[in-house]
Amino acid sequence: MRVTNNMIMSNTKININGNKTNVNTLNNQMTSQKKISRPSDDPVIAIRALRLRSSLSQINQYYKKNIPDAEAWLDVTETSLTNMKKLLTTIHTQCDAGANGTPTEEDRKTILKQLQSLSDQIYSEGDADYAGRTVFTGYKTNSTLTFQADSKETYNISEYLSADKIEEYNYSYGNVKTPTAADVAAKTAPGTPENTTLHRLRLSYDNITDITGGKISYSYTDTATGQMTTKELNVTTVTTSDLEASSYAIADNDIVFNKDTGEFLMGKTLASNLKSFGATVSVNYDKTGFSKGELRPENYFDCTNNTDAANPIQYTNFENGKRVRQDIEYTIASNQTLVVNTQASTVFNSDIARDLDNLTSIVQSAIDAHSVVDNIKEMKGLSQYSSKDDQEYLESCLAAAQKQADYADHQLQTVFNRGLTKFEGYMSDVNLAITDVGSKGQQLDITKNRMSNQQQTVEALKSDNEDKDLSDIIIDYTSSYTAYQASLQAAAKLERQTLLDYL
To answer: Measuring CA to CA, which residue among 66, 43, 265, 282 is closest to residue 157?
Structure first.
């Protein structure tokens, strides 16, 4: 085949251009230290790079954002629960002090001061937040667990109470007060302190406006038919003054509601029946006005905020008698989620504040009762009451006051003994929640380590696919550049060859 000069020059130009392209490609690689600068350079590398970058982006989302967020949420939760445990432990210690032995006047005042300070902060840990989101209120992260100030809001609340919560409780009436000079002169009969035992079932709030329809219902499973049975009870609403005036007289099958204290008081027969049925008591009631630190009903109960009658706000926390879970989940790995929140209803029992208030009022009653005894003893030593009649009168007052103080001491010991068991139960709930948070933290740590390893693996694969070592690039570049220079020199010599060179 005949080869012409044009053919030689054309091939030479093609080869020079190829070498020049290699030099340019390697020069780009030297600048970027990447194997390709555009997908067309190597489609296989480009497609693999897209897939690896997408995987790495997902892993970084989990490892650098979701997992740290979940860790912070769990840390805030655990800190709050630990503080709550300390508060409950302190209350338990005070219960132990009140239940064992006979507290002195100084002991009672110390216990009262401690309980009053604790009542102001008992639910404050439930208002803990992370990044502006309250951690214990389920989906209502923009709302606090408690009222932050005294409120005049009106709620209609549906509360479900287990008959297991019915307990015996002693009520005293006919209180004795320190007689005045006029009482001594007129020989006014002192009060006659009496004590009676009733069965009570408490709502989560006191100072209730009214019970809807004056009725409550209770449900239980009929052992004969296996069917769920629901019945109603007519309830008489009274005040504490009404009960004291009637000497707390309640028939065995009757039930009354003290709206001042939020307590249902019932006779022993009705209480026994409800307990034996294993009944669930359903109460619908209205309440207007909440104190600072009280639990917001929407975090615990089915309720309606009727503060604005034209725009009521309804909240649902139960379906078919079961509490609706409001789980906040973080995606911490591919196809793996973690529930990070703990709902207040599982740890911040609505009975805690009620029991604490009960303890406080019992201690205050004991202090007041002993104060009356001390006052009368002091009056007996005054010269103005030295007459026989006055002394006999004051002695009768002292006997009545001492009886009242004895009732108060007995009640204090009984309630504080019961408080030991109750607050042990509350601490157990908190300990269980702390354990649950701890197990979630361990699960998160395991996933975090796995994501860290995955991140390193994918980054290595991505680097192997896209990156090129600078030393290798320099070697290849030098080789290509040398070839390019050689091709230029060869082409230059070819250009100088003419027909005359062969003649």
So the answer is: 282
The 10s digit of each residue's pLDDT in 274-324 is 999 999 999 999 999 999 999 999 999 999 999 999 999 999 999 988 899
Percent helix, strand, coil in the chain, to 5, is 55, 20, 25
CB-based contacts of 309, cutoff 8 Å, min separation 6: none
102 pLDDT above the threshold of 90: no
**Torsion over CA of 397, 401, 402 and 407, rounded to 10 degrees?**
150
- Domain definitions of the chain by residue range: 147-325
| DSSP single-letter state for residue 262 | T
Bridge partners of 255, per DSSP, are 266
Containing 473, the helix (H) or strand (E) segment is helix 470-496
163 pLDDT tier (thresholds 50, 70, 90)? very high
Transcribe 312-377 into DSSP letters: -EEE--EETTEEPP---EEEEETTEEEE----HHHHS-HHHHHHHHHHHHHHHHHHHHHHHHHHHH
Q: Give residue 374's region: left, alpha or beta (phi > 0; psi -120 to 50).
A: alpha
Which DSSP string do the residues of 405-447 spell out, in sequence order? HHHHHHHHHHHHHHHHHHHHHHHHHHHHHHHHHHHHHHHHHHH
What pTM did the predictor assign?
0.84
Task: Write the pLDDT tens digit of every residue in 229-262.
Answer: 999 999 999 999 999 989 899 999 999 999 999 9
Q: Is residue 149 a contact partner of residue 291, using CB atoms and an 8 Å limit?
A: no
Torsion, CA 246, CA 250, CA 254, CA 255, rounded to 10? 70
CB 9 within 8 A of CB 494: yes
3-state DSSP call for residue 467? strand
242-266: b or e for each residue (b if 16 or more CB lie within 10 Å)? Answer: ebeeeebebeeebbbbbbebbbbbb
| E strands present in 75-162 | 129-130, 133-134, 151-162
State the DSSP code for 33. Answer: -
Tokens, residue 151: 């409120």
From the list 342, 333, 371, 278, the residue with the least C-alpha distance to 449 is 333
DSSP 41: G
- Alpha-carbon distance 395 to 380, whole Å? 8
